[in-house]
């Protein structure tokens, strides 16, 4: 093999194609390291401390059989989460003052993983995506091309929603993550978007256990809310003042309202299914200014390479779970909406990566 002159003998030179290739196959490691720190409650331990903590101090708060060894393991877990910006590392003096040792702290990213921070924790989302349920599905990604079945279905022999009905532990991890996603998005939506202020009856289609509509009805108490989802999901939904829970199938029909909210539902579905759902929405809206508000991550002409990489990753997760589910650009959503008769499609970009699409039935 001829040596490339840029491979100048430094093994760990990231310009070295061999190292880059091997490193790209290691991509799952930070995700599992992050999961380990969450399961150990490291973000919570660090949040309770005013100062960065050494690994030795952290393990004192854990029921470790061998604390000295555990501190060593923990350093190695924490160290690969420094460059991605998940935890911070600084040097502090050792107890004898003779040298320095590493101390770890939270960054704005890991602050979002603190369990008891009910307003802002994103821990359930990180727990869902680092769950073996997803990684087992991804082992079958290549076969999905050959068999035209979702990797998840190939792994478990069931579709995602069949699996939910049978495996309550998977369903609860998923619902916790959806509830968490809703808290994050709805917090932005109720503060920055005033498009629900004239709504009388709002139907949240595929609304899960009602987290999103709960926020909207609390912000606009004049709204009558209808939370619509599969009967198996609705049976676990808690009572919410001002909201009726209705079970059903959005491919058949959905309850009537003057505004329909569809958050993170269309990306679970292929174009044909989206057209069926949007037609059900169209039917459920009144003739004059009935409105659909879609909440999805979308790409547009201003998207950066990082935005595209994030959306492409989410897109592959949709493929892995639902096969036909996919992420779309604003233009692609516009095509779906206009072919169902919707007009005046508008992209509304809010802060923290939250995007909405509005469209009207005239
Ligand atoms: C990704 S979740 C989004 C939940 C919620 N909108 C949110 O943003 O957190 C998709 C929702 O669609 C519901 N769903 C799937 N198929 C459905 C169907 N045929 N009819 C009604 N709801 C359905 C699921 O149960 C799930 O709650």
TrEMBL record:
GO terms for molecular function: O-methyltransferase activity; protein dimerization activity. Residues 26-116 form the O-methyltransferase dimerisation domain. The active site is at 267 (proton acceptor). Transmembrane segments: none annotated. InterPro entries: COMT-like, COMT_C, COMT_dimerisation, SAM-dependent_MTases_sf, WH-like_DNA-bd_sf, WH_DNA-bd_sf. Residues 138-342 form the O-methyltransferase C-terminal domain. Keywords: Methyltransferase, S-adenosyl-L-methionine, Transferase. GO terms for biological process: methylation. This is O-methyltransferase domain-containing protein.
């Amino acid at each position: 093999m001829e040596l490339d002159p840029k491979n100048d003998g430094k093994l760990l030179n990231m310009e070295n194609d061999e190292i880059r290739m091997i490193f790209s196959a290691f991509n799952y490691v930070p995700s599992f390291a992050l999961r380990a720190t969450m399961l150990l409650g490291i973000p919570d331990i660090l949040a309770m401390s005013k100062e960065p903590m050494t690994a030795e101090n952290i393990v004192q708060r854990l029921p470790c059989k061998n604390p000295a060894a555990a501190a060593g393991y923990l350093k190695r877990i924490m160290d690969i989460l420094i460059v991605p910006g998940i935890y911070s590392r600084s040097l502090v003096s050792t107890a004898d003052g003779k040298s320095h040792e590493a101390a770890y702290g939270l960054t704005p990213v890991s602050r979002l993983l603190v369990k008891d921070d009910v307003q802002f924790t994103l821990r359930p989302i990180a727990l869902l995506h680092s769950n073996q349920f997803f990684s087992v599905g991804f082992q079958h990604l290549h076969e999905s091309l050959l068999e035209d079945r979702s990797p998840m279905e190939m792994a478990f022999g069931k579709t995602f929603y069949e699996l939910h009905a049978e495996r309550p532990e998977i369903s609860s991890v998923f619902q916790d993550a959806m509830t968490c996603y809703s808290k994050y998005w709805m917090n932005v939506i109720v503060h920055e978007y005033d498009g629900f202020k004239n709504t009388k009856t709002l139907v949240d289609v595929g609304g899960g256990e009602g987290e999103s509509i709960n926020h909207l009805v609390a912000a606009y108490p004049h709204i009558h809310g209808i939370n619509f989802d599969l009967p198996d999901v609705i049976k676990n939904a808690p009572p919410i003042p001002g909201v009726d829970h209705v079970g059903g199938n959005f491919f058949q029909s959905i309850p009537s309202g003057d505004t329909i909210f569809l958050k993170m539902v269309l990306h679970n579905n292929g174009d044909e299914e989206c057209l069926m759902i949007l037609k059900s929405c169209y039917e459920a809206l009144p003739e004059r200014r009935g409105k659909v508000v879609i909440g999805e991550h979308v790409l547009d002409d201003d998207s950066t390479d990082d935005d595209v990489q994030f959306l492409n990753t989410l897109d592959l997760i949709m493929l892995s779970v639902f096969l036909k589910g996919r992420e779309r650009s604003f233009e692609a959503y516009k095509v779906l909406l206009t072919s169902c008769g919707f007009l005046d499609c508008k992209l509304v970009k809010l802060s923290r990566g939250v995007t909405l699409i509005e469209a009207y039935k005239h």
